[in-house]
Amino acid sequence: MRIDRLSAEKARRNPAEASKEHIAFLKRVRRHNRFIIAIQLAILVSFFALWELFSRLGVINSFIFSSPSRVAETIARLHSNGELFHHIGVTMLETALGFTLGTLAGTLFAVLLWWSPTLERILDPYMVVLNALPKIALGPILIVWVGSGMEAIIAMALLVSTVVTVMTVLTGFNDISLEKQLLMKTLGATRLQTFLKVILPASVPTLIGALKLSVGMSWVGVIVGEYLVSKAGLGYLIVYGGQVFKLDLVMASIVVLCVLAAIMYYAVAIWERSILRRRGER
């Protein structure tokens, strides 16, 4: 399959040299991609259409489950009041800070653990416990430590994304072939040279995968933090809507949250494809 992809890329760059097989392969790829996109859109449209239909027919309780039309009206009302982008901006800022700091801290800590196998063995059980621990249990402690403002929310996102990043990146580092590392050592390379020339380049897909996980975990951390302590943000709207039984507001906030999370995830995915294409892996 990889050979076919490389041949297709070569044919795309040099149309004059493309054989009939190359052209047929490119057409199959395009048709398959269009088919995937069409199915994805059909599922999404069908979901909202059935949701609206069942709500209007009374199959589901529109007060509890809301409906796409009521969600759209709520979003439009929030926009007209000037509240929508205010809450989106607060949550996006918290998520971006948690994602950036968590990814950097997690990657650096993973490098440190790889650099010192002894330290990794010492901290391994604690990392496992911390990864399994429900982070919401630490919410009250974080509020006491860093305050009840945005700092606590960012700290929660940082905690959630950092642990996942450390575990993912460190696993990727350790999966690199020991034979390659021994070869570098035999050739007289230092540990830094081994890391820069072998470990880091081979771990690029793992690092990008860690970014994808960190995106989702950052959103989780931020929303959990906003559940505990917030005066603005999408998590605040969800909590407020639930408390006053404005479930249209809850569903509208969830829909906006899903859209933003998807945009952020696909931005990382597009960046991944760009990097892998430059590396000749796609």
Summarize the structure.
With 282 residues, the chain is mainly α.
Unreliable spans: none
Number of helices: 13
CATH class of the largest domain: Mainly Alpha
Mean pLDDT: 82
C-alpha end-to-end distance:
11 Å
CATH topology of the largest domain: MetI-like fold
Helix share bin: over 70%
For the sheet with most strands, the description reads: none
Tally of DSSP β-strands? 0
Q: Tell me which CATH architecture of the largest domain applies here.
A: Orthogonal Bundle
The CATH H-level homologous superfamily of the largest domain: MetI-like
SS-based class: mainly alpha
Helix and strand run: HHHHHHHHHHHHH
Please report which band the strand proportion falls in: under 5%, 5-15%, 15-25%, 25-35%, 35-45% or over 45%.
under 5%
Rg computed from alpha carbons, rounded to a whole number of angstroms: 24 Å
Outline, from the CA principal axes?
A: flat
Plain-language structure description:
The protein is mainly α and 282 residues long. The protein folds into 2 domains: 2-60, no CATH class; 71-278, Orthogonal Bundle (MetI-like fold). Helices cover 84% and strands 0% of the residues. It contains 13 helices and no strands. The longest helix is centred in the N-terminal third of the chain and has 38 residues, at 20-57. It starts with a helix and ends with a helix. 27% of the residues are buried. The mean pLDDT is 82.
